[in-house]
Amino acid sequence: MDRRARKEPGLKLAMYPKKEAERDYNELLQSEQRRFVWADAACTSYYKNDAGWITFTMPWSYSQFWWMLRKIDWNQWKVISNKDKA
Q1: Is residue 78 part of a domain?
Q2: Mapping DSSP to helix (H, G, I), strand (E, B) and coil, where does residue 54 land?
Q3: Which of 8, 25, 50, 76 has its C-alpha lying 20 to 30 A from 70's C-alpha?
């Protein structure tokens, strides 16, 4: 993002992950969750919804998660502004 854009009066920005990045993250998340007991099909837990999707949010240590997030990959994000044409 151009530094000048951050100083433009009235400019508002929003960002959200692209579908591919969100899908890739969720696949990694579910894969990493398989090492926990609540991933077992016989386990009934509030960490798992009725479809078997594990909703526990972070299977990594805080240092691992920090390392994953230390640098943003702007190719994985969509950035929009109130100045964009509809």
Answers
A1: no
A2: strand
A3: 8
Q: Tell whether 49 is covered by a domain.
A: yes
Amino acid symbol at 10:
G
Mean pLDDT, to the nearest integer, of 68-81? 92
Q: pLDDT by residue (tens digit) across 9-55? A: 888 889 999 999 999 999 999 899 888 888 888 888 888 888 888 88
Residue numbers of the domain that contains 62: 15-72
Domain presence at residue 21: yes
Beta strands in the chain (DSSP E): 13-17, 77-81
Query: What is the chain's Cα-based Rg?
Result: 18
Q: How many domains does the chain have?
A: 1
- For residue 9, give both structure tokens: 């009066």
* 59 within a domain of the structure (yes/no): yes
